[in-house]
């Protein structure tokens, strides 16, 4: 699977994608991540990617033209035989606009996206993105939660990690995939079994030290949240 990220801050991803699961998945050739600077798809000398909103209002809006050109360019790389935008889009590609008004991202959505070979993530910024991107360029809009962020870059990272974890062979321990526990978590403990915190001995629940796997599983199910 290849993730294509369109952003005005391409350097923002460097550290995150060079560590942990995402880094290992790239080394194993399970995923590829390609980052595109939106300013490279502008025509003016100032590399303008935004403008004032029609009708007035605060902030600036990302322009549709450079985003369309960026997506079109990615399509051409994936499917060099195609003649135009209408025929360019490969069936195995999904184009997603990170948007505050998008559908809430969850594990079910992450799983559904694993069927694509290419996922294009358009990172919004400023006051928003020209609505024509949502209507005519992207396949869907996704939000990672009901809160305000400066842009879609963090959302792109969240989506990439959630999908990557579901790709067979990425995780060393397949039981770490959260959907096997229906996205519920139970309390976990590790050594030492007894530790002093603020003058009091805090211990691990005895059942977890018992070696009785049936009782341990029952305890975990009881304490799932």
Structural features:
Alpha/beta knot, 3-stranded mixed sheet, Trp Operon Repressor, Chain A, single chain, 225 residues, 10 strands
| Domains, number | 2
User: What proportion of the residues form beta strands (DSSP E)?
Assistant: 15-25%
Give a quick account of the main beta sheet: strands, pairing sense, barrel closure.
5 strands, parallel
The proportion of residues forming helix, as a percent range, comes to: 25-40%
Principal-axes shape call: elongated
- SS class: alpha/beta
Q: If classified by CATH, what would the architecture of the largest domain be?
A: 3-Layer(aba) Sandwich
The strand order across the widest sheet is 2-1-6-5-8
| Total helical elements | 8
CATH topology of the largest domain: Alpha/beta knot
N-to-C series of helices and strands: EHEEEHHEHEEHEHEEHH
| End-to-end Cα distance | 32 Å
Q: Quick one: CATH superfamily of the largest domain?
A: SPOUT methyltransferase, trefoil knot domain
- The total strand number stands at 10
The gyration radius over C-alpha positions equals 22 Å
The CATH class of the largest domain is Alpha Beta
Instruction: Tell me, rounded to a whole number, the average pLDDT.
Output: 90
Low-confidence stretches: none
